[in-house]
Amino acid sequence: MNQKLSKKERLMQGNEACAEGALACGLTFFAGYPITPSTEIAELLARTLPRYGGKFIQMEDELASIAAVIGASIVGAKAMTATSGPGFSLMQENIGYAYMAEVPCVIVNVQRGGPSTGLPTKVSQSDTMQARWGTHGDYRAIALAPSSVRECFDLTVRCFNLSERYRTPVILLMDEVIGHMREKVELPEPNEIKVINRMKPTVPPEWYQHFEINPHFVSPMASFGEGYRFNVTGLTHDPLGFPTSRTDEVQAKLDKLRNKIEHNVNDIVQVKEEFMEDANIAVFAYGSAARSARHAIRMARQKRMKVGLIQPLTIWPFPDVYMEHMSEQLEQILVVELNQGQIINEVMRTNCGKTKIRGLNRYDGELITPDQIFTKLRELR
Amino acid sequence: MEQMPKITHHYLRTKKKFPSVWCSGCGIGIVFGAIIRAIDELKLEKDSVAMVSGIGCSSRMPVYADFNTLHTTHGRALAFATGVKLAKPELNVIVITGDGDGLAIGGNHFIHAARRNMDVTTILLNNNTYAMTGGQYSPSTPFDKIGTTAPYGNVERGFDTCELAKGAGAVFVARGTAYHVIQLQKMVEKAILKKGFSLVEVITPCPTIYGRLNREGTAIQMLEWQKDHAVAVSAARSMPPEKLKDKFLTGVLWDIEFPEYGEEYNKVIQRAQAKG
Q1: Could you give the ipTM of this predicted complex?
Q2: What's the rounded mean pLDDT across residues B239-254?
Q3: Does A119 contact B at CB distance below 8 Å?
Q4: Of B67, B80, B86, the CB nearest to A229
Q5: How many CB atoms are closer than 10 A to CB A365?
Q6: Stretch B82-110: mean pLDDT, rounded?
Q7: Which residues of chain A does B265 touch, with a Cβ-Cβ cutoff of 8 Å?
Q8: Residue A325 forms contact with B (CB below 8 Å)
Q9: pTM of the predicted model as reported, rounded to 2 decimal places
Q10: Structural domain boundaries of chain A?
Q11: A143-to-A105, A108, A199, A286, B19 alpha-carbon distances in Å
Q12: A34, A94, B46, B265: most buried by Cβ count inside 10 Å?
């Protein structure tokens, strides 16, 4: 018998692990609309959430789904939605509302091929830039990208923690392979999971400012019905939440949205490394592409090639400082993506021309193979 | 002489700068007053009221009200309100929307909210136009009327908001006017008390934009038009059809019983927990 039976060792899909991660950190509300390849998340939560007294609702479309999620979060729920490309596009206006009104919530995008209806059942990483720049206006986005079933669980927990800590929507950028793939996983026990909840006000209601500007850039957040009676709006607003077009108040608000992310990049950004100690060539890959890259790097190591893997778990904000540092050490970087080349532009931006940077892209709906990456690595030499 | 504070003054935000965004002669303030008096009459705690709105002139109402207020995106008030109500059922959720906000861009949310039958009260202020953007034709602009985007006359028909709500499954549907303000207050009270999705459509004048474009006269004349053209549903029953031509019905038009969403979902929770 397996000695670790007390642990939850299970064969599980990425989508299931995402739902389990959300439940593990206290999800109480899910609103969604059916869309391949994310639907299993909604199905699992429709079954599981009511068991914990939570609420699941299937809305009329994705615009309504994210709206209901934001409404639920404002009254104190931990809320999430899950979708794929077309639905993610429909959600963008209200995701912008969540940035502006500083509402914590998690949006899962299990990416499929695009543009438009694209390839509903095929893998893609072509929403990478949309996760950063999807809605209009100036804002800072947080997006995390898992590459295994266990990472789906862990990064979903982390999405909630970051969204609660920084009062901002956080995007989990999965893809079809990660969402549908089954792996054996051992999930952590509840007491092993660190759960962060939003900071609540300690001041009396007459002192409370829902959008207070303070040195931490994150304002404590009361919920509706707790006696604070504040206004929430998507219009640019003053610290009380009242619409304003006063230039000093407008700039202060937009600075706050930027600063609360920029001043905390060290907390938000996570990069996973493999074989990087002596590497002079790095493969930069995330999500399902990182899996093929890992295998290709093992093949290359057997051929005594000094190749390592840089796998950003945090896609946005981009790991600027880490990549600037790496540009001193490396001779070449191969950026592997399931799109026509999106994150490679960020790698180039932070590299400032110090390193040779090549892209390896596949966007025909199939996962890039280790052989393809290995062949490309041999060409680099 | 000391001025007596009105009931409405107790429900306005002291920190919000006035005057409001509304033009003089606008009917929204009258409707706002009726809603506040209805809430006062029902003795609802301010903390128990969540007022949710979309975008447009009428949707600017919540910001002045001393409740939990949520001014959302264009057309989406009912979708936000659905999340608010489901996640915190003890709140009295009142949605403020307009004809453009609620029937055009938010039309899909409107019919599904009615069908879903969550305990939300929707007050739809119908001024027949997009006033905030300057008078474009809306889904309730009558046929042949003028809008800045219908300079030769509107070739579309306007929605009958109440029939739409009824058809979509609302359990309580009423129509009032800014002129019949006492009746309006009573309708709002009934709508708030009604368990399930209730709709009150309020015919309200926009003299500055719609009135000017259509030469409908002053604010007073537009209110008088409402007085002359509104027929109480009770009175209409004994009136011959020719007398009802060009008139519109007011009062409680529809009032049925149907299980409310939240109560039904609580049964889902019980079933799920029993299964374990």
Answers
A1: 0.97
A2: 96
A3: no
A4: B67
A5: 15
A6: 98
A7: 50, 55
A8: no
A9: 0.97
A10: 8-192, 272-380
A11: 12, 10, 21, 12, 42
A12: A94
Locate A150 and state its tokens: 């266990």
Mean pLDDT for A262-285 is 97
Three-class SS of residue A137? coil
Q: What are phi and psi of A105, to 5 degrees?
A: -170, 160
The residue ranges of every structural domain in chain B are 22-275
pLDDT at A130: 98
pLDDT digits (tens, 9 = 90+) for A214-232: 999 999 999 999 999 999 9
- Give the model confidence (pLDDT) of A42-82 as tens digits: 999 999 999 999 999 999 999 999 999 999 999 999 999 99
Residues A285, A337 contacting (CB under 8 angstroms): yes
pLDDT of residue B1: 57
Distance from the B246 Cα atom to the nearest Cα atom in chain A, whole angstroms: 36
Residue A8, pLDDT score: 66
Q: Which token pair is B166?
A: 């009824």
Interface test with A, best of B66, B76, B270 (most A CBs within 10 A): B76
Do B82 and A71 count as a contact with CB atoms less than 8 A apart? yes
CB contact under 8 A, A67 and B52: no
Fold of A272-380: Rossmann fold (3.40.50)
Give the one of A60, A231, A234 whose C-beta lies nearest to B73's C-beta.
A234
What's the CATH number for A8-192?
Answer: 3.40.50.970
Domains A8-192 and A272-380 alike in fold: yes
Peptide bond into A37 cis (omega under 30): yes
Inform me whether the C-beta atom of residue A209 falls under 8 Å from chain B C-beta atoms.
no
Distance from CA of A28 to the nearest CA of B (A): 8
Q: What is the pLDDT of residues B142-191, one digit of tens each?
A: 999 999 999 999 999 999 999 999 999 999 999 999 999 999 999 999 99
The CA distance from A232 to the nearest CA of chain B, in Å, is 5
Q: What are the DSSP E strand ranges found in chain B? A: 49-53, 68-71, 92-98, 120-126, 129-130, 136-137, 172-177, 198-203, 230-232, 248-255
Q: How far is CA B231 from CA A293, B224, B227, B248, in A?
A: 74, 13, 8, 6
* pLDDT value at A1 more than 80: no
Interface probe for A, chosen from B71, B115, B270 (most Cβ of A below 10 Å), is B71
pLDDT over 90, % of chain B:
95
Tell whether the model's pLDDT for residue A257 goes beyond 70: yes
Distance CA A8, CA A186 (A): 5
**Chain B hits for A229, Cβ within 8 Å:** 46-47, 66-69
The answer, for A226 touching chain B at a CB cutoff of 8 Å, is yes
Q: In this predicted structure, what is the pLDDT of residue A3?
A: 45
Domain B22-275 has CATH 3.40.50.1820: no
Tell me the nearest-neighbour CA distance from B239 into chain A, angstroms. Answer: 41
User: How close A40 gets to chain B, by Cα (Å)?
Assistant: 18
A-B interface: how many C-beta pairs under 8 angstroms? 144
Residue A143 host element (H or E): strand A142-144
Contacts of B66 in chain A (CB under 8 A): 229
Does the CB of A137 have a partner CB in chain B at under 8 Å? no
In this predicted structure, what is the pLDDT of residue B19? 86
Determine how many CB atoms are found less than 10 A away from the CB of residue A200: 12
